[in-house]
TrEMBL record:
Signal sequence extent: 1-19
Entry keyword set: Signal
Domain of life according to the entry: Bacteria
Protein's UniProt keywords contain DNA-binding: no
Organism of origin: Camelimonas fluminis
InterPro entries: CusF_Ec, CusF_sf
Record lineage: Bacteria, Pseudomonadati, Pseudomonadota, Alphaproteobacteria, Hyphomicrobiales
Protein name, as recorded: Copper-binding protein
Length: 92
C-alpha cells in the first residue's frame, strides 16, 4: 500500500496537469504586440481562477479573424515564462 501511495505521489509531481481547453470571450486583440485580452473560466493547469487578463499569442497567425466579442475555446500554458495561448478555436 505504501509503495502504491509513493508511486501515485511521484506521478502527480512528475507529470503536471496537461493543458485543457477553456471557454473564453475575447475583449481586445492587439495584433501589433501578438496579444489578446480574454475573459475566461478557471485554467486548471495554471492553477488560475476565472478572470480577465492579457495573453501572448503562441503564433501571431492565430489572431487573424479574431475580434472583441468573439467566443473562443483555448489552451494556455507558460512558454518562456509568459502565459501564452497555445491553441485557439473560434466558437459559434
Amino acid at each position: 500500500m505504501l509503495k502504491t501511495a509513493a508511486t501515485l505521489t511521484f506521478m502527480l509531481v512528475a507529470f503536471p496537469v496537461a493543458a485543457q481547453s477553456v471557454d473564453g470571450t475575447v475583449t481586445k486583440v492587439d495584433e501589433a504586440q501578438s496579444k489578446l485580452t480574454i475573459t475566461h473560466g478557471p485554467i486548471k493547469n495554471l492553477e488560475m481562477d476565472g478572470m480577465t487578463m492579457v495573453f501572448k499569442a503562441g503564433d501571431p497567425a492565430m489572431l487573424k479573424g479574431i475580434k472583441a466579442g468573439d467566443k473562443i475555446k483555448f489552451d494556455a500554458d507558460r512558454v518562456n515564462g509568459q502565459i501564452t495561448v497555445t491553441k485557439l478555436k473560434k466558437g459559434k
